[in-house]
Amino acid sequence: MMELGKETILGAMLIELPRMAGISITDFLTRYQNLFGRYVDNHSLKMLLEEKTPAENWNIINRAKMLALGGVGEKKNNSRQPLCSVFSNLSLDGSYPVKKYYEPAVSDVGNLIPHEEIRNFDCSNLVQDFFHELEACMSSPPQNFDAFLIVLDTLLKKYFWSVPATEKQDEDISLYDVINTTTAIAAALVQESQKVKPYVMAAGHFSGIQNYIFSVSKVGAGGVTKRLRARSFYVNAMVSALAHCIIHKFRLPMVNILMLTGGKFYILLPNKEEAVTELQKIEKEVTEFLYEKYKGNLSLELVWEEIGDTGLCHYSKTITSLSRKIEWKKKRLLEGVLISGNEWNPDEFVVYQNLAHKSMCTSCRSALVEEGKEMCANCE
């Protein structure tokens, strides 16, 4: 994580907490000065939260918060109404289902089912429990700033996932989502805020996942269930590792991974001069690695698009545009390996140079093994 901008990133994550606790910014920072002081300058953080810092620093947080709310004015949330289920506000034929709401409770499987009516909505206990856990961090603080941001983000999600972000009627966006998105935007703006399009939205997609995972179920070798679980875990870990690699290269916190699921991820990056070059380099390295290890059974499509504030406010349009780019690249799989310049690279079409004394892997039937062995290294 970059040294410059730590206070701005942490400030974006903390901006709502003094009000939630019902105390002043000064009292809030005094209470946790031993914790925050381990990672940032407390005086600079105080000046930032009190809007006494240089205008550009506060403007980054204010701008990020406005964008996280969809570019509309903020309505202060005093927890007077519950969070509405997003499915209550979706309609396919013009008619809407009965509104359902979430109980103000910690993130838990038992609390994820919305109800038609929430009586005596009160999240004061949630707020108290959140600050008790934050105080516990003071006795066992995370080792560094990045680790602290992860812990703080986890606590915010645990306690504020069911608290509405605004006082808007039937609000279906949680306070946690707004804080999380505000921090991601602020982290990007800290590195690049002067351009008309200061962000790069990157999307990664792995092709061939289902075929790779389920290929082991089509043969008679034992231990199929174990290998199915192992391959599923391995693919998920590989996708997650690449997303984390990208934010590490750009010196960003984990919150800048906006989505990571189903073999796909979306990441918000600063539009620095070297951004596109770095993404191209990552794509080339990963494509070559996958081709060498999986012989074309798994491949990566990494796409990106420069966007401005409008691209964040119209997030769905940005995602649709990236999806089109992914579909286009899926029609040209392994292009970076199989094409050199404007010509085919025929040497790369030969997967195995030597077939002598080799046989098919009895598990996946897609890799060769040395004589006397049954399974390839991947299946083992």
Question: Could you please describe the fold and organization of this structure?
Answer:
With 380 residues, the chain is of the alpha+beta class. It has 15 helices and 10 strands. A 4-stranded antiparallel β-sheet has the order 4-5-3-6, with helices on both faces. Strands 1-2 form a two-stranded antiparallel sheet. A hairpin with a 2-residue loop joins strand 7 and strand 8 (343-344). Helix 6 packs across helix 9 (175-191) and helix 7 runs antiparallel to helix 8.
Please provide the ordered H/E string of secondary-structure elements: HHHHHHEEHHHEHHEEHEHHHEEEE
Quick one: how many beta strands? Answer: 10
Instruction: Supply the number of helical segments.
Output: 15
Spatial sequence of strands, sheet with the most strands: 4-5-3-6
Mean pLDDT across residues: 87
Topology:
Blueprint (H helix, E strand, L loop, with lengths): L5 H9 L2 H5 L3 H7 L1 H4 L5 H8 L5 H14 L14 E2 L16 E2 L21 H16 L5 H16 L14 H17 L7 E9 L1 H6 L9 H26 L7 E5 L2 E7 L4 H20 L4 E9 L1 H5 L1 H16 L4 H4 E2 L2 E2 L13 E3 L7 E3 L10
Helix pairs in contact: 1-5, 1-6, 1-9, 6-9, 7-8, 8-9
